[in-house]
């Protein structure tokens, strides 16, 4: 069986660990029932759960293990996210409720788009990401995560 993977892109900066992971956990559970693996940029970052808000400059909590620190540095974050965004079968981008543009997510869209990886964007019509570069890079745009999950299953599921 060929691995079927979806990278779960979306805002992280300014959110708590739980806020940033709640939708990712939901989608992972939904797609996992169909043998579709999800990759979260928050994996192996449980040490951030007690941080007040997740920061864009990847600050490291004192006392973490060296390997954890390496994956939490700006270089580690970019290496992992770039690998995921360029090796997945589908990039799922959840921008629902965004208050400011997620620069990292926009870069991930660019990486995936350059490799012709299908991109499913979830955002409202008045979302701050509603821009020609996002709209034209997206394979599909929807306003609900449930519709995005349906599209992913339609693309990746064996019939």
Give structural notes.
- The protein has a 5-stranded parallel beta sheet, with helices on both faces.
- 42% of the residues lie in helices and 13% in strands.
- Helix 3 packs parallel to helix 4.
- The longest helix is centred in the N-terminal third of the chain and has 16 residues.
- The chain is built from 6 helices and 5 strands; from the N terminus they run βαβααβαβαβα.
- With 159 residues, it is of the alpha/beta class.
- The chain has one domain: Rossmann fold, CATH 3.40.50.
Explain the layout of strands and helices.
Elements: E1 5-10, H1 17-32, E2 37-39, H2 66-72, H3 74-87, E3 90-94, H4 103-114, E4 119-122, H5 132-137, E5 140-142, H6 145-156
Helix pairs in contact: 3-4
Salient structural properties:
159 residues, alpha/beta, Rossmann fold, five-stranded parallel sheet, 5 strands
Brief summary:
The protein is of the alpha/beta class and 159 residues long. The chain is built from 6 helices and 5 strands, in the order βαβααβαβαβα. It has helices at residues 17-32, 66-72, 74-87, 103-114, 132-137, 145-156, and strands spanning 5-10, 37-39, 90-94, 119-122, 140-142.
Query: What is the total number of structural domains?
Result: 1
CATH topology group: Rossmann fold
Helix content: 40-55%
- Report the mean per-residue pLDDT as an integer: 86
Tell me the radius of gyration: 15 Å
* Number of E-state strands: 5
CATH uppermost class: Alpha Beta
Q: Strand fraction band?
A: 5-15%
Q: Largest sheet, if any?
A: 5 strands, parallel
Which regions are unreliable across 5 or more consecutive residues at pLDDT < 50? 53-57
Side by side, the strands of the main sheet go 2-1-3-4-5
The rough form would be described as globular
Q: Could you tell me how far the N terminus lies from the C terminus, measured between alpha carbons in angstroms?
A: 14 Å
Q: What's the CATH architecture name?
A: 3-Layer(aba) Sandwich
What class would the helix/strand composition place it in?
alpha/beta
Number of helices: 6
């Amino acid at each position: 069986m060929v691995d079927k993977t979806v990278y779960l892109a979306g805002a992280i900066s300014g959110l708590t660990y739980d806020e940033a992971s709640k939708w990712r956990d939901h989608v992972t559970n939904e797609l996992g029932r169909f043998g579709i693996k999800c990759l979260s940029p928050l994996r192996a970052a449980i040490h951030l759960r007690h941080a007040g808000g997740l920061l864009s400059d990847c600050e490291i909590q004192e006392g973490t293990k060296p390997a954890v620190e390496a994956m939490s540095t700006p270089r580690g974050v970019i290496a992992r996210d770039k690998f995921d965004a360029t090796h997945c079968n589908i990039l799922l981008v959840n921008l629902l409720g965004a208050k400011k543009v997620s620069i990292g997510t926009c870069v991930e869209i660019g990486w995936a788009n350059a490799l012709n990886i299908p991109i499913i964007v979830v955002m409202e019509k008045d979302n701050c990401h509603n821009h020609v570069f996002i709209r034209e890079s997206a394979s599909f745009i929807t306003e609900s995560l449930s519709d995005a999950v349906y599209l992913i299953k339609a693309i990746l599921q064996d019939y």
